[in-house]
Amino acid sequence: MISGANGVVPTDAHRLTANDWFKDADTQDINLLMCGPATVDGATGKVVPTQLIDIVNARKDSVCFISPYRDACVKVAASYTATDNVKTYFSGAAGLASTSYAVFDSGYKKMYDKYNDVYRYVPLNGDIAGTCALTDAVADPWWSPGGLSRGQIRAAIELAYNPTQQERDILYRARINPVVTYAGEGTMLWGDKTGLQQNSAFSRINVRRLFITIEEACKIAARSVLFEFNDSFTRANFKGIIDQYMNDIQSRRGVTDFLVVCDTTNNTPQVIDNNEFRADVYVKPNRSINFVTLTFIATRTGVAFSEVVGQ
């Protein structure tokens, strides 16, 4: 920005240097980290997304959002080709690492750039992060950001790639969240998976963000016991704080049940002699609905429903 010049187009190397700023969790307080374009140097590069995954895996207090590279889905003639491109980028032999701290989406949207009076295709990861921010504002982090209520994508003229039902099934099995446009309903995030390959509670965005919220609150509470005595009074006081906090989470539908253990069973004499303090928090997270089964049954006119359904 010298003498009115706008400088040079940032390279992936510039972006890597900028992203280093977010590595220090003590000085940089973040919970949603957007990738932007997957690459600006190469068609299918993964160096920036890989760096962001490494950052959030190390921090364990935030989630990163990643879209496929532009040519995977923008102006691709066949929808099945875009499906294969997106799936290969995220989950192919050289795909991105399995992690519950990342969220993958299916592509790009077309939007109006009012500053330059042109239409542009932009990656959707900023919008997916936006659905999580909206979820925080209107509900809580442990609610799913997908669907009609909280998953609306704004300012989308059209999608570069609007996957069909069959293609959405392919993407979802490959841990990719489809973004779809339904006539009369708009464009929305139609999934809530994390980038975790294994089938686990943490393969859902709402569960991962629930645990981030709980872990951060417990970490702050744990500072109050530092340099105190590891005795029954300190343990009971800490357990009371966490119990109260978890009761609030439960009342707001974040968990179905929980248990806090902080006594002599995990604070053994050896633990105390090592100047340590331990607490175990067991959590049963609430699960989001990903599949709906509706069964319709025709009955005869004279049949009582109580006989058909059973008791």
Topology:
Layout: H1 12-19, E1 32-34, H2 47-59, E2 63-66, H3 79-91, E3 102-104, E4 108-113, E5 118-123, H4 125-138, H5 147-150, E6 158-159, H6 165-173, E7 179-182, E8 186-189, H7 205-222, H8 232-251, E9 255-261, H9 269-273, E10 280-285, H10 305-309
Parallel strand pairs: 1-2, 2-3
Antiparallel strand pairs: 4-5, 4-6, 7-8, 9-10
In brief:
By secondary structure, this protein is an alpha/beta fold. Helix content is 35%, strand content 14%. The strands form four sheets. It has a three-stranded parallel β-sheet, with helices on both faces.
Say what the CATH topology of the largest domain is: Rossmann fold
The total strand number stands at 10
Query: Radius of gyration from the CA trace?
Result: 24 Å
What is the residue-mean pLDDT, rounded to a whole number? 92
- The helix/strand order is HEHEHEEEHHEHEEHHEHEH
What spatial order of strands do you see in the largest sheet?
A: 1-2-3
Give the helix tally: 10
